[in-house]
Amino acid sequence: MKCLVNLIQVAIVVAIIFPIFHIWDTDKVEQLYRNTRAAMAKSEFIELAHNSGAKITGPNDDDLAGGKWTAIASSHSPFAQEFCEIKGTSKTVAAAKMIEY
């Protein structure tokens, strides 16, 4: 019986804390999206992404010549429904957009 009570207490704590974590973590991606602007230097974007705390994949080169690149910023939360896609050419950011799936 004591084990059941402890399990219920843990479930209640998780039910309270997880939504707060989800909102906090998805807000990091939205802040990165708002702070990323066209014509920003690639190195400046990488520093901004590193300091944002969001999960970043890339920048990865899209072609063999190395002219175009793409980066994805997403939330650590497993239930996040959106991510930010950042595209660039050479050493500058071309565009950033939020994508919902």
Keywords:
single chain; 101 residues; alpha+beta; Beta-lactamase Inhibitory Protein, Chain:B, domain 1; four-stranded antiparallel sheet
Fold blueprint:
Elements: H1 2-35, H2 42-52, E1 55-61, E2 68-74, E3 82-89, E4 92-100
Antiparallel strand pairs: 1-2, 2-3, 3-4
Provide a descriptive summary of the structure in words.
The protein is elongated. The mean pLDDT is 83. The protein has two helices and four strands; from the N terminus they run ααββββ. Strand 2 and strand 3 (82-89) form a beta hairpin. The chain has a single domain (2-100), classed as 2-Layer Sandwich (Beta-lactamase Inhibitory Protein, Chain:B, domain 1). By secondary structure, it is an alpha+beta fold. It has helices at residues 2-35, 42-52; strands spanning 55-61, 68-74, 82-89, 92-100. A four-stranded antiparallel sheet has the order 1-2-3-4, covered by helices on one side. The termini are far apart.
Q: Approximately how much beta-strand content do the residues carry?
A: 25-35%
Distance between the termini: 42 Å
Radius of gyration: 18 Å
Question: In CATH terms, what is the architecture?
Answer: 2-Layer Sandwich
Mean pLDDT: 83
Largest sheet: 4 strands, antiparallel
Q: Helix tally?
A: 2
Number of domains: 1
Secondary structure: helix percent: 40-55%
Number of E-type strands: 4
SSE order, one letter for each helix or strand: HHEEEE
Low-confidence stretches: none
CATH class: Alpha Beta
**SS-based class:** alpha+beta
Envelope shape: elongated
